[in-house]
Amino acid sequence: MTALPMIHSTEVAAAKAAGKPIVALESTIITHGMPYPQNLEVARQVENDIRAADVTPATIAVIDGTLHIGLDDAQLQLLAQAKGVAKLSRADLAACMATGGTGATTVAATMIAAHLAGIQVFGTGGIGGVHRGAENSFDISADLMELAQTPVTVVAAGAKAILDVDKTLEVLETQGVPVIAVGQDAFPAFWSATSPFKAPLRMDTPAEIARAHHMRGQLGLPGGQLVANPIPLDDEIPAPTLAPIIAQAQKDADSHGIRGKAVTPYLLQRIFELTEGRSLTANIALVRNNARLAAKIAAELMALSRDTGN
Ligand code: PSU
Ligand code: MN
Question: I want to staple 152 with a disulfide (CB 3.0 to 4.6 A). Which of 21, 51, 187, 224 is the partner?
């Protein structure tokens, strides 16, 4: 049997050897979620936010068939500027690697890679979910099923208002995924700090979230947790401002026949245009906020594993 083509960056390998906490980061947000050059600036900033908490960042991507756990600056630049990079979810990861391809990992694929590398905490912007009109399109992100089966705690700013938030919460409940709002009762809606929906669970400290993750492991439960961290109030775009913009973007997606993997990137780009860039400013603020919380959870989890010996 040939070895799995997976390599750790020097920084991540050193952190693993020293038993230091690590936070995984996805790369689809770089290639499909934000325009160049902001995507590169944010990728670097988010890594530095994690380092500032004395935690090691591991941005994950497939480059020329190899699964990279941690990227160096040249690799970040390559992804940020590349055109036509594949978007890899659970369904695409093995095929991309087997054919020597290059691709960015979504939440689902990043969770798979993080778990393989022994990383338990992952910070991102928003997860995929149940799209509006899913009763006709059947468009439900593989991210939700991944949360049900892979034991990684994902810190996100809730579900984007381009999704059907109510149905997304229902699927997460069906799949047995703990959905934890941080410091408030409402489930946050990405660019907006609150939504009309109450989150099933609420926790106020990184230590509680780490203990819940640890307890799931002790119970032998397979999946992860969704930590829904509201965007800082200063950076939010109120839901009423966004509602007509989202409706317009959705209408444009439908009239252009956008389907499958292209839907989320199309909507994000269209909303960026329609808000004249304001959606991106908010997106950057919430990703950094999530990275900082993920770093704290990873540090708590490491302390907990040390104390309990597992
Ligand atoms: N939400 C964002 N930015 C993103 C994504 C979601 O605000 O870049 C990406 C993530 O990688 C997520 C993926 O896992 O989109 C979901 O895509 P889909 O809906 O096709 O499963
Ligand atoms: Mn989809």
Answer: 224
